[in-house]
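## retry 2 of 3
previous attempt timed out at serialization; input unchanged, resubmitting
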Amino acid sequence: MSSWSSVSRKSLRHWRGMTADEDRKYDRGASANGHYRAGRASPADVPALETLVRPTQQRIQRDVPRVSVVLPSYNHDRFVACALDSILAQTYQDFEIIITDDGSTDRSIDVLRSYERADSRIKLFLNRFNYETHSLNKCVHQARGDYIAVAHSDDEFAPSKLEQQVNFLDKHPEVAAVFTAARIVNQLGQELPNYALFDNTNRSRHEWLRHFFLKGNCLCHPSVLIRRSVHDSVGLYNPLFGALDDLDMWVRVCLHHDIHVLPETLVNFRILDWSGNASGDKPENFRRGQYETIKILDHFQRPEGLAQLHLIFREAADQILHSSHAEKRYFLGKADERAPAACRRRDIARRR
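## retry succeeded, writing output
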């Protein structure tokens, strides 16, 4: 394994802002081949809070890393080296990096292979063509750690990100996932102060569900550190989603578990001027986002969502607590109509 002291200096310098030189299981087929498991969750499917913590002794005996950093990559040869440098420069070093390249046509694969040769903690998997598999799910399938951190191939971690998040989850076994604040930057690494994509306010899980229903996503995907046991219970990302797969995951998680947002800014979230992000402002992404929003809202009218509806919409608790499922679904339809049109567009400002 090579020394990364020079990498650490480069990552820290770049982090300081200096310019750098980038339905019921919606589809039965997808569920059957093991890529995705969601939809109805019976009580037996969802573990008690204390079972979210996997036995540490088992991890030690298996001699596997505590954290798996999963990184889907696609056509970000200008930025992926900085992304990997920021991970390798972490103050917390007990990790592996699982990368799936989704059929890049630029030099991304050459860059990734050079990093794989240099550090045995890095494992690279290649899709033969774009969307051959859901890249993030493929990474999670290969991950061995108790905690899973999501990274994007054009974003960067602050040096203490993993350390702070691991410490938090270790001290709060009742929390399923921890996020952080994010700094929005352009392709040169310069901060974009007028972008307000994320909300760092902490809420109860039912308050989060209300926010997701009425306003959409406000959590930074590459800031998350989530327990592997949560994926074991609620499933992986929906492979049929291309724009809002993260929002779909947060809804499924919050239907059963608490989450938390650290106030520290520990991620550089990159916005590309040339709509180079996978979910940039493009007509096809807007149409896809509308379709995916409908599918995500369907979680709320399933039995586990309806059972918690009075806690999600507390102002109407007396009205809906003892209502039938049909009446609760009618309430949901009226609640969505009351949401502002801009909110119902859900995440059109998102670039992932």
